[in-house]
Amino acid sequence: MVEKHADLHVVLGATGAIGKAVAAELAARGHAVRAVSRTASGPGTVRADITTAEGAARACEGAAVVYQCAQPPYAEWANEFVGLTDTVLSGVERAGARLVAADNLYMYGPVEGPLHEELPYAARFPKGRARAAVAEMILAAHKEGRVRATLGRASDYFGPGGLNTVLGAAIFGAAARGKTARWCGELDEPHTVAYLPDVAAALVTLGEDPKADGHAWHLPAGPALTGGEFLDLVWKAAGGKPRSAGLSRGTQRLIGLFNPVVKELGETWYQRDRPWVVDDTAFRASFGALATTPHEEAVAATLAWFRQHG
Question: Which top-rank group of organisms is this from (predicted)?
């Protein structure tokens, strides 16, 4: 075990949307931050390949808290996520640090009613099983005393810098250009959406409070909206003539014949054809009423970012 810095917070995957938001939130709260990426460089950034034990150890060295925001390419989750998690755990263990893992909701599979943390890991498709295996690995490592660890789970996110999400270019990029904004799924079903800065604030809250350890938490988000309601907010911010549409399962299958990214969405279509509402009661009861950004404000900020960045 190496000597650790009392307040060094390390962000793995710091060039991704969630990692970048977490690093910004940590800096805003006055923490010492090391941003880690396999490719990027710059002040305060360490270039490291965390898919290897040596790279993970270098990335985590001296850390008090490590935020695991890195992930394999979406299509490779089933093949690569468990191995990545294994090397990250080895680096965190060697550093004697706490681990906060950015997680999602795939492991539950189809559910009826609000999603809460006591649901079984019932996913039967490859990406869901990979996410379940990763969560089980992390919580087992905590139980065994290898690391102190927690997971923060969020639904589909959007926000400045949020490109690799179904709530990104297909909605905000299109609206910024006056094109048709397309909601992935049924337009009349309620769906919890998470704003990137709110996700980051909740993950950092977990990183600051050791009582989070040993558990998975659903991160706070605003009230669920239907796809139609979300698109209405986007066009309210964008102005001009609203142009909106829903992407049906049939259209997804058709586009997926020649678009591999859209094809991958078929595994989780159950999140898009029925209510998908996240219960964040446990987080709020344990860590206080963490404020979330009003949807209208969050949508306007996201649209402004897409306009600025083309």
Answer: Bacteria
- Cα 175 to Cα 83, 126, 222: the distances in Å are 38, 33, 22
Helix axes 77-95, 126-143, angle to 10 degrees: 20
Buried b (16+ CB within 10 A) or exposed e, 173-201: bbbbeeeebbbbbbbebebbbbbbbbbbb
Q: Is 149 helix (H, G, I), strand (E, B) or coil?
A: strand
Q: Which amino acid is at 4?
A: K
Residue 63 CB neighbours (<10 A): 27
pLDDT tens-digit series, residues 78-126: 999 999 999 999 999 999 999 999 999 999 999 999 999 999 999 999 9
Question: Can you tell me the distance from the alpha carbon of 203 to that of 11, in angstroms, rounded to the nearest whole number?
Answer: 11
Task: Report pLDDT digits (tens) over 35-87.
Answer: 999 887 666 688 999 999 999 999 999 999 999 999 999 989 999 999 999 99
> First vs last Cα of the chain: how many Å apart?
46
Between CA 81 and CA 194 the distance in angstroms is: 23
The two beta strands, 190-191 and 225-226, are: antiparallel
Q: What is the pTM of this model?
A: 0.95
Query: What distance in Å separates the CA atoms of residue 56 and residue 38, rounded to the nearest whole number?
Result: 11
